[in-house]
Design goal:
It catalyses: 1-(beta-D-ribofuranosyl)-1,4-dihydronicotinamide + a quinone + H(+) = beta-nicotinamide D-riboside + a quinol. The chain is of the alpha/beta class. The chain has ten helices and eight strands. The N and C termini lie close together (9 Å). It binds flavin-adenine dinucleotide (FAD). Flavin-adenine dinucleotide binds next to helix 4 and helix 9.
Amino acid sequence: MPPRVYIRGRLESGVDLGLESTHIIFTKQRRGLDSAHSSLPLPLLLSLTDCWVPRRGQLPGTQRRNTSPHAMAGKKVLIVYAHQEPKSFNGSLKRVAVEELSRQGCAVTVSDLYAMDFEPRATRKDIAGAVSNPEVFSYGVEAYEACKKRCLTSDILEEQKKVQEADLVIFQFPLYWFSVPAIMKGWMDRVLCQGFAFDFPGIYDAGFLKGKLALLSLTTGGTAEMYTRTGASGDFRYFLWPLQHGALHFCGFQVLAPQISFAPEYASEEERKAMVASWAQRLKTIWQEKPIQCTPPWYFGH
Ligand SMILES: Cc1cc2nc3c(=O)[nH]c(=O)nc-3n(C[C@H](O)[C@H](O)[C@H](O)COP(=O)(O)OP(=O)(O)OC[C@H]3O[C@@H](n4cnc5c(N)ncnc54)[C@H](O)[C@@H]3O)c2cc1C
């Protein structure tokens, strides 16, 4: 089934396609769409979509969750944030997320990885005390053993505690080489270890972090048009596969649709403000969203 979409923005003229979800195509990208793609068939337009922004409070056809203020108050959110500069666009997206979620009564914790000088390298130092095989060091084996014995180094344990307590983990980052910045990859390597986030056969829907939500909020250098199936960079869902499926879903997270702010450096001030506002707007109803079907068809089509 094709993605269900309500496109707003310049195409907003009110044409409700009778489909589900909302995607904001910002002015710069709309210009491209209007000139280059407006006559394209709907499926091709739809291929430009998938960073959904709920429009009327609830995505039609999704199960409604209890989103009364009482239900949201008490929700715990961890934002894992990777940008060096607080005044950056990523910094703004992080800031409005903290403001909006706190306003809802959620308890929000931020792991500001650069500010924390978070250690990204997975090394022998992560195991406090003796390793089980001093002859040949295997990080995966030793981290697993140390996790079981609660002998991981304290910065890992602190991050695991934050994850354990969170109902929703938001990853806020600029796209680096079709992936997360190294410091965030290091967070994944070290924090989501076997024994904590998964263990066999406890993977994917049986992963240890099941029942939790995860959301990637990222910015790109490339435009939305570049990140289409026929664009120079290919569909953005291709680079989401290893992150959303290979890491987050593998550990049991249910994955919410990504928030992708395309090319803020090349957008106008007005367009950038609109992107920040749309993220804040989406967060107002984030607890009503249904996770994506995190399986190959979502990423690569049928
Ligand atoms: C090592 C590396 C690898 C990369 N790999 C890729 C890749 O594979 N694919 C790709 O597409 N891109 C890639 N990029 C580009 C990168 O993703 C972008 O540079 C990044 O996403 C831009 O986000 P930013 O937060 O750094 O933007 P910024 O430069 O911080 O922000 C853009 C502008 O927004 C302004 N701004 C900040 N807050 C607000 C606000 N509230 N309202 C209005 N304006 C605001 C800022 O002042 C600035 O003028 C790569 C970059 C690097 C360094």
